[in-house]
Amino acid sequence: MIDYDFPLWRPPSEGDNLIIQATLGCRYNQCSFCSMYKAKTYRARPLDDVFADMETAAREWPEAYRVFLADGDAYCLPTETLVALCDRLASVFPRLQRVSAYATPFDILKKTPEEIALLKSKRLGLVYLGIESGSDVMLKRIAKGSSQQMAAALTRARGAGLKVSATVILGLGGKRDWQEHIDATADLVNRAPPVYLSTLQLGLENEVAPRFFERFGDGFEWQDDRDVLVELRRLIERLDPPHPVIFRSNHASNTLALAGNLPRDRDKLLMQLDGAITGQVRLRPRWIRGL
C-alpha cells in the first residue's frame, strides 16, 4: 500500500483513479482563499521514491488506467521529469490511458507548445486549472495573476492539444462586486474557452479568512445561496464560447448540481436555475456541502 503524505487532495472527477504523489505541497501556495497546502512545504519528490510508489500501486491495482499526479501543481515539474514519470507509468500500467495533474497558468506558460505536445503524446493530456475569475480586480485580491495570463495559458494549452478543466469560484466578489466578477469571467471563457468548466462556491477555512478579508480592504459581504444562483445564471446566460465547453457544478461546495454542454444546453441549464431561484427545485442540503 502506498504511504501517502496527507492531506491528499484531488479533483472530484479523479475520485476513482490512482493518485501518485510526484510533488508535495504547492509551489505557488499564495492564493488568499486556499488552505489546501498550508501545512506542507513544497518539494519535488525524488524520482526513485515516486517510481517505488508506482511499483507498489501496480502490484495492488495492475488494471489502473487513469493516474492523477499530486500534489498541488505537479505540472510545474521540468518537462524531462514529467516525461520520465509518464514513461514509467506506461511501463507498469499496461492499460494506461490518461495522466493528469493540477497546474497554474504560470506552469503552462513556462512550457513551450512543443513541450506540452510532447507530454500529451506521453498521455499527460489533462490539467486542472483554477482560473477562479476573469476579473483583474478579483485576481489581484486573491493573488492569482491576471486575466491576460489566464487567457494566454488557456490558448497555449488548446493550441498544443492539452485539455484544461478550469474552475470558477462563485461568490468570490461578494455582494458589492459580483457582477464585475461574473461578467469578466464570462468574457475570459468566451475569449479562451477550456474544454471543461466547473464551478465551486466560496468557502474559507479559519486560518486563511483574515488574509482574504484584508485584501478586500473596505469589507466583504457574503453572497447567500440565492445570490450565488443568480451569479451562476448570469454566467451561463453570457457564455457563448467559440468551442463547445463541457460544464459541471458537481463540486461538493455547490448549492445546485448542474451538467451540460455550452452553448448547446444553455436554455436547459437556465430553466433549472430559474426553478432553483424560485424555490421549485431543491438545493443541496448544507450539511453535505464541503470544500
Structural notes for this entry:
The chain is built from 10 helices and 10 strands. It has 291 residues and is of the alpha/beta class. It has a single domain, classed as TIM Barrel, CATH 3.20.20. α4 crosses α6. The longest helix is centred in the middle third of the chain and has 18 residues.
Key traits:
single chain, globular, 10 strands, 291 residues, alpha/beta, TIM Barrel
Task: Write a short abstract of this structure.
This protein is of the alpha/beta class and 291 residues long. It is built from 10 helices and 10 strands.
Q: Could you say what the CATH architecture is?
A: Alpha-Beta Barrel
C-alpha end-to-end distance: 27 Å
Strand count, sense and closure of the main sheet?
Answer: 8 strands, mixed
* Total DSSP helices: 10
Q: What value does the average pLDDT take?
A: 95
Q: Radius of gyration, Cα only, in angstroms?
A: 19 Å
The total tally of domains equals: 1
Q: Which class do the helix and strand fractions yield?
A: alpha/beta
Strand order, main sheet: write it out: 1-4-5-6-7-8-9-10
As a percent range, the share of strand residues is 15-25%
Looking at the structure, the CATH topology is: TIM Barrel
